[in-house]
Amino acid sequence: MPFEDAQWVWLNGKIIPWKDATVHVSAHALHYGSGVFEGMRCYETSEGPAVFRLGSHLERFFASAAAHDLRIGYTRKELAEAVSEVIRRNGFRSCYLRPICYVGSGVLSVHPKTSPIEVAVLAWPAETQFGREALQRGVRVTVSPWVRFHSSMMPTTAKACGQYLNSVLAAREAACRGFDEAVLLDTNGHISEGSGENLFLVRGGRLLTNDERDSILLGITRDSVIRIARDRGYPVAIHTLQVDDLLAADEVFFTGTAAEVTPIREVDGKAIGSGARGPVTAEIQEAFFAAATGRDGRYRSWLHHVAPATRTSGTRKASRKRSPR
Ligand SMILES: Cc1ncc(COP(=O)(O)O)c(C=O)c1O
């Protein structure tokens, strides 16, 4: 069970036991997906746990809420403190974090009217999305028959709960056909993204990726990788990508908080490059982990260190399991 080590949740301003953090069956978000969320990671560093790009994730959280007219009743500072408190109280050295803001129980008309807005922060230890072996071997993907929704249908740059049914359908369909993950096209037939990851191609020593014009979520890992690649002297071009570009690439990889930097070794049975993690992907992957775990001082400003527990912050468990890496 992924949640077995998670004991405390921050809910509406209070730390409460995980088992008590429940939602009523009449909650608007349960019926209509009316909520927004974030996914972030806390990495173990030599100076203790640190949340990777917390400021950027909170920025996107507030932007997603604004796109759906949800008022988060807490400041960024309060939520940053909530995130730190959840990590401390659970005693995690590293973990995945999930802030969520959703419409609770009030009315069940489609318009939520004055239903309450609830805010929670969950955390649990989580291995890299496709498993550690996939970081080296790469994953096998398929181009999905499901199309990524267009910004005229829903705000594509917001990370909203209900819109993930599009991703859930694509991920399940890909798994049914024996693939690790789906790549969705947009309504114009261009490459969009994975069910929960952005995509990079490597061709002739250049990195290529798309942007919000192709209905992607603007990933924070994507942004970090663009910066890291440019710092290492790789040109990064940002434009629309076709399926042909994907199939002809020397290397392809996913980026995302859950997937981190995961190579793609095969698309619909066709090997990408040599059919294994390529050298540029390996270099970017290593540089990303060095940044996220504080080994590369150039990216220090991306880390939000979690201050140690004070006497009032309670139940820290020094012996909690380490999560991988
Ligand atoms: C649909 C989708 N695209 C891309 C990403 C990657 O975004 P990030 O790197 O901010 O985690 C995610 C994950 O949040 C996602 O759900």
Output the keywords.
single chain; 325 residues; alpha+beta; nine-stranded mixed beta sheet; eight-stranded antiparallel beta sheet; 8 helices; 17 strands; 26% helix; globular; disordered C terminus; binds pyridoxal-5'-phosphate
Counted beta strands: 17
User: What's the average pLDDT?
Assistant: 95
The end-to-end span amounts to 19 Å
Radius of gyration over C-alpha positions, nearest whole angstrom? 20 Å
Report the order of strands and helices: EEHEEEHHEEHEHEEEEHEHEEEHE
Uncertain segments are 313-325
Label the structural class: alpha+beta
Major sheet description = 9 strands, mixed
Bound compounds, each kind once, are: pyridoxal-5'-phosphate
